[in-house]
Amino acid sequence: MLDWLAVEEALTRDGYAIIPALLTCDQCEAVTGYFPEDQRFRSRIVMERYAFGRGEYKYFCDPLPDLVSELRRDLYPRLSPIANRWHAVMRIAERFPATHAEFREICRRAGQTRPTPLLLRYGANDYCCLHQDLYGDHVFPFQAVFLLNEPGRDFDGGELLLTETHPTKPGRAQVVPLRQGDAVIFAVNHRPVRSVRGFHRLSLRHGVSRLHRGQRHTLGIIFHDAR
Asked: What Pfam family is a match, any one (predicted)?
């Protein structure tokens, strides 16, 4: 049973929350095995072509694999109340419905119809530049990443990086330590930080440091769809 209060506290304090061993080793291997199955995906991106870094990723097509669909559906209603509280204190007008099906319908009406869960693969010397996953007018403020390989056994390097830009102070960078099967939930765009005048917004970006050896696969769950 997950302690969602602790998840919210970590998100509010750090901008991310780790959920250990949310996937089993067998589930990680199964999802990794999807990568060569082109029929599961709507597009493939070679990162170097677009100056995104080095490595490649693929966006799943509908219907999503059962496990991917279940993760998206089941995590969303736990995160949407937190998202609404964040938007309230940051004075962002959009509020999020109780179920992911309802939110997808909002995305659909806005022309955001392409699914965004993705599978990423990095090899030696690959990396991902700092970025935000913003795909349209409707952006859910959290996303989840699942590490599918074991650091030190399957690969070295390739740490998940999170950076924050503060409006009045120097920013900071964090390395997020993950093991195989762990999930990390983090802020897509902004997070609220209390100030003497209420709250201000910190801007966040994420990326992956250079891989030194082996292969690293991750599953990304983004809750808003793309145009």
From this structure: Oxygenase-NA
Q: One-letter amino acid identity for 82? A: I
Peptide bond preceding 65 in cis form (omega within 30 of 0): no
Given a cut of 80, is residue 204 above it in pLDDT?
A: yes
The span from the CA of 91 to the CA of 199, in Å, is 9
pTM for the complete prediction? Answer: 0.96
**The predicted structure's pLDDT at residue 139:** 97
d(CA 85, CA 94): 11
- What is 4-222's CATH topology? Jelly Rolls (2.60.120)
Which amino acid makes up residue 163?
T
Instruction: Please report where in the chains the tokens 């696969």 appear, as a residue.
Output: 217
User: How far, in Å, CA of 206 to CA of 161, rounded?
Assistant: 5
97 in Cβ contact with 81 (< 8 Å): no
Residue 162: helix, strand or coil by DSSP?
A: strand
pLDDT of 8 reads 96
Number of other residues whose CB lies within 10 A of the CB of residue 171: 13
Tokens of 226: 């793309």
